[in-house]
Write a structure and sequence with these properties.
three-stranded mixed sheet; 1 helix; mainly beta; elongated; Seminal Fluid Protein  PDC-109 (Domain B)
Length: 96
């Protein structure tokens, strides 16, 4: 099995705001100076996306739909939710 690295798209808050890019669906963008991040939907520009924040309680997490989680599963953002899939279903650099 090959080993892959995950590298987040990152930059300063002012740079994100000035460039206002559209992140791919499921793509994470990290503000290095604020430690805040946004997750793209493939359509909405950076400035209109909400920030995601860490929650002390799992009760507040509504965007995950996990079923029969197995070791090696990967997460994919689909139809407004993060869902788990077996790793072998991932092809073409993360597409299913």
């Amino acid at each position: 099995m090959s080993r892959n690295r995950l590298q987040l798209r990152r930059g300063l808050a002012v740079t994100w705001t000035e460039r206002n890019p559209v992140l791919l669906a499921g793509e994470l963008g990290l503000e290095l100076d604020t430690n805040q991040f946004k997750i793209g939907d493939g359509e909405t520009a950076w400035n209109a996306l909400p920030y995601y924040t860490a929650s002390a309680s799992l009760d507040n997490i509504t965007e995950f739909e996990l079923t029969s989680v197995q070791t090696g599963d990967v997460l994919r953002y689909s139809s407004g939710k993060w869902r788990n899939y077996p790793e072998q279903e991932v092809v073409n650099g993360g597409d299913f």
